[in-house]
Amino acid sequence: MDDLADSSGSLMQNADTATSSLSSSSVSSSILTNYPLISALVAFALAQSIKFFTSWYKERRWDLKQLVGSGGMPSSHSATVTALAAAVGFHDGFGGSLFATALILACIVMYDAFGVRLQAGRQAEVLNQIVYELPAEHPLAESRPLRELLGHTPSQVWFNALDYHELEL
């Protein structure tokens, strides 16, 4: 019994030594060479940057919220998950379970973008109009408006999916 305790203690000590020997540089270098992660982050940054500059072009003012906000064209959600799925497919193969998982995740995110989030944005428009028409003495008359631009139309979502897939090729 003591031999078992000694050997398990030795194993625990070896595991601790192996864990501590992993330097932060090896972890960070593996993140920096993670092709699917880099692809997804670049697609997100590119989509948000396009939104930012498009907003400036249309309104002639810089809107920093466009760098992190959701909704609008292009869809950073669609771009990110499409780039991730495509990169996983190119990196690990299109026949594996990892690609299948990434593809299903992408489909769920894109469905949510033009389904639930689009409808929530349309409801926000109606609710904002109702609040706007309230008499000034009503307690909700001074409430902050809800965000209306939450989702995307189906064509916006699919355009982004196809557009960012082309970047991977």
Automatic annotation (TrEMBL):
The keyword RNA-binding does not apply. InterPro entries: DUF212. It comes from the Eukaryota. Keywords: Membrane, Transmembrane, Transmembrane helix. Pfam families: DUF212. The chain crosses the membrane at residues 35-54, 66-88, 94-114. The keyword DNA repair does not apply. This is Acid phosphatase/vanadium-dependent haloperoxidase-related protein. It comes from Davidia involucrata.
